[in-house]
Write a structure and sequence with these properties.
The complex is a heterodimer. Chain A is of the alpha/beta class. In chain A, about 55% of the residues lie in helices and about 10% in strands. The chains are: A alpha/beta, B alpha/beta. Chains A and B meet through helix 9, helix 12 and helix 17 of A and helix 3, helix 5 and helix 9 of B.
Chain lengths: ~500, ~475
Amino acid sequence: MPALSGSRIGVWGVFDVDDHGLSLYPQVVRRELGSRLADASVRVFAPFGSEHPARLDRGDPAEPLGAWSPKRVAELAGQLDCVLIGGGGVLLGDEELATLYAAEPSEVAQRSPSRFLVEGLGPGLEADVPVVWHGLDASSPLGAVEAARLRLARTGRSHLAVGDELARRRLQEAGIDGEISVVPDPVVLLSRLFSQDVLDRRLEFLRLTGWYPPSGRALVVQGDRRLLSSVSGLTAALGRLVGGDEELAVVLCEMAPHAGDGELADALAASLPGPVYRIPATAAHEDLVAAIAASAGFVGSSRHGHIAALCYGRPHVMVGHGARSDLEGFALLTRGSDRFVDDPAALPAAWAAAVRAAPFTGVLAALQSDVDRHFDHVAEIADASAARRGPQRSHAEMEAVIAGLEGEAAALRRAHERRAERLAAERVVFADQVAGLEADVARALAEGQELRRRLREEAAHRHAAEIELAALRRTRTFRWTESARSLYRRLREIRP
Amino acid sequence: MTAIAFPRVERPAVSIVMVTYGGWPWVSEALGAVVANTPPCFEMIVVDNASPDGTGERVSEGVRGATVVRNAHNVGFGAGCNQGALVAVGRYVLFLNSDAFVEPGWLEPLVGVLDSDRRVAAVAPCLLDPDGRLQEAGGLVGGDGFAGQYGLGDDPHRFAYRFPREVDFASAAALLVRRQDFLTAGGFDPAYVQGYFEDVDICLRLARRGLVTRYEPAARVTHLRGASTGGEGALARAVASHPIFVGRWADELARRPLMSGLATHPHRMVASRDFPALDRILVVAVGAPTGGPASPGGRLGRLLEALAAWCPEVRVTALVDDGSGADQAERWAPPLLDRGVEVAVGDDVDQWLRARRYHYSVVLSSGREAFERFDLPLRRSQPQSLRAHDVGRSEAEPRAALGSDAVLCASDADRAAVRALVPEVPVFAVPDDLGAGRLRAALADALSHLGVAPPAGFDTLLAGASR
C-alpha cells in the first residue's frame, strides 16, 4: 500500500569530487526516483559534501555524511526511509579515498567515510531502513581483508547489485553469498537528463571557443594517467585513424581530472600530428555529452565516456591499460569485447568493429530496461519502507479519492491559468480597439470642428456680401443702370 | 598603476563573471567598485576576449586575486560568460558588464532572493544611468519581439519602480543566476554572437523550465550602457540578433501583448509589465493604509499584506487618493513596496486608470468613500473587472454593496448585517485581527469566488490556517 507521505531516500556515494561519471550518478537517481515517487524527497550525501565543494556540483553540493559514529548513523537512519549506496568508489578504503580527495590520510581516517559506504547503517538499523547497494565497482579481485569486510556488511543486506557479470564473479569468488544482481550503471539513462536543444547550444559554444572543430567530424579522445606508458602507441594508432581523413580531427577531453586525464591529454596534445582540439577540464556535463553525441566516435578509458557514446549511438573503442580494468566488464555487458583493446596497436581494428556495430540501439534499450526495472524495485522498497515507518494509512479507497481530488485540483488550476491568460489577452485587444476608435473619434471631432469653423466663416462672408449688395442696390448708379443691366441679362439668357 | 586586489575567499557563495573587450578605464573602475562595495563572499572571474587595447594584459598584471581567462580571439559576450561560468565554483554566478559599477549594499538583496525562493533562477538589480536616471527596472518582451527596459529615463524613486516583481527578463549587465539552473538550461546561446538578446533568451528558457526571473529594486548598479559593447554599431548588432530571437521564440511571442505604438496605446506598457501575473487586483482607497488595529487604515494595510502574500503570481496594486502626494506616501508606502505591492498615489486618477484600461481582474474598494470616489472612473476604465467592496467594521452602504460582486466585512456579525441588507450579494467575513496565515485563509473563499488563482500548496495553506 503506498505511503501517505513521501518517502525519504538517501543516496550515498563519492559525489563530491570533480568526476563526470561520479557526479552524474546522483542526478540520474534523483530524476528516476522522482519520476516514480511523486512526493519522495531524495537527499544526496557524500563523505565531505558541501565541506569539499566541487565545480561539478554546480553550486548544489551533496550533504556531508560527516565523521562516522554510531550516533551519526542513528541520526541518518532516523531521517531516511531507504538508503541507496552507489556510484563508483563505494568499495574504496579510507586510504584510497584520501588519495581521491587529495586530503591527509589522517583526516580521512578520522571521518572514516568507507564505514558509511560499506557498512551502511549496520544490520540492526537496516532491519528497519533498507539499504540498497548498487553498482559496486569490483573491477579487480578483492583482497582478503576487503572481502571479509564485505561479507560481514552483506549480512542482513538483501539488495546488492554490481555493474557487470565480471564484478559479480569477483564478489562470488570473494565469498559474498546470496543473490547478487547485475544492474548496469544507471548513467546509461543520461540521455534523459539533457535535451537536444541544450546539447545543440553547447556544441555551438564549443565550436565558437575553438575547443571543437568548426566543421567536419571529431574523434573524441580521453584517457587517464595509467595510459601514459602507452602514449606513443596511442599516438601512432590515433594517427592511423585520422591520418587518411581530412575531415576528422582529434578532440581531447578530461572526464576525471583526479585520475590524471589532464596529464594524458597534455602528452597526446604534444605528440599527435595535425590539428588537435581540446575541451578544458572545466567543461560541464552538457559540454562533454554534446561533444561525444555529435562526434564521429569516442576512444578512451572512461566508462562514462563510453556510456555517453552508447547513448547517442556513436562508435567507441574502450582502451584498457594492461591491468584488469572495469572496462572489461562493461565490454562484456555491451557485447563489445571486440571493441576493447589492451594494446593500442589493436585500436584500428577495434575501431572498424565499432563503426560496424553502431548505433547500438538494441544493446542500449536492453541496458536501459534493466536499469528501469531496478529503479522500479528501489522505488517499491523505498515506498514500502515509508509506508511501514510513516503515519497510519487510511483506507485504500480514501487514497484513491485523495489522488483523484489532487488531479482535479491540478487540472482546475491549469484551466484557470489558461482562462486568465486568455482574458488578459482579450482585454488588451479591447483596449487596442478602443484606443483606435478614440483616435478615429478624435479625428472626426476635429474635422467636424474645422468644418463648423469654415461654415461660420463662409456664413460671415456671405452676410457681409449681402450687406454690401443691399447697400449697392440703394445707390443711384444701381437704379440708373437698371435698364442696361436688364438688357444684358436678357442677352446672357439668349447667349449663355 | 595601483593594483586592484580581490579578497581571497575559500568557499565563495557568488562567482562574479566579467567579460572584457577593451575599455580599461571603466573596467578598472568597475572592478574597483566590486572590491569597495561587496562583502568578501565572492570570487572574481574576468574573461578577456582578446581586447585590442591591452586590457587583457592590464587585468593579468594589475588585478590580484581574480581568475583571469584570456581568449585568443573574441568569442562574444555570451560565450565569454559561459566560459566564466565553467570555471566558477560559487553556488550563484553574477554576470557583470565591464561598464557596470556596483553600489554599496548591492549584492546582499540579490543573494537574499535566491536564498529564499527556489522558484527564482535569476534576479537583477535596478540599473541606473550615470546621471541617476533609471535605465532598467526589469525587462519587457513584447509580442513583436521588442525587448525593452521598463522605466527607461524615468525617476528611479517613483513607486512604480520600487517594488520587487517577476519580470520577463533582465539585462545581463548585472544578473545573478543559480549556477545549476544556468548550466542545465544550456547557458547563454552562442547563436547571438553579435550580442544582444542572449539575456532575454536565457530568461525565457528558464521560464520554460518553470523558473522565474525577478527584479529586486533594493540592489542598485550604475551602467554606462554601450561602453562595454562599443557604442558604434550597437543598434546594428541588436537588429542582427533580433530575427534569431523572433525565430526561436515565435510561439511564446504570439502569447504576448505588442510593445509598439505606446504613444497611442499606453495600456500596452503595463499589460506587458504584468504579463507574468495570472491575476491583477487593484485596491482603491481614499485613506492611507496605516493606523491602529481597529482603524480602517490599519485594516487596509493588513488586507494589502495578506493579498501580497496570497500568491506570488498575483499583482496587487494599491491606488490611494488621500489628497497628499508621493512625498507624504513615503511615510507608509515602503513596507508595502518591499512586500511586492505596487503603490500608486497622485492627482490624476483618471489618466492613471486610462493607461491601465481593462487591466484588472478584480477591483476592491476599501470603504464607502473609496467606492464613491472611484466608481465612475472604474466603470469607464475597468468595465471587465469583478468588483469587491470592503465595508470593514462600518455599516454597509447599499449602493456600494449592490454594485459589487462580493462584499468583505470584518466579522460574522457584520456579515449577517450586510446579508440582511443585500441578500443577493455574496458576503465574506474576513477578520483582520488574526495572524497572517489565518487572514490569508479567511481571504481564500472570497478570492476563489472572484476567480483569483489559488497559490500552489493551497490545501496546505488551509490546513495550516486551521492550526
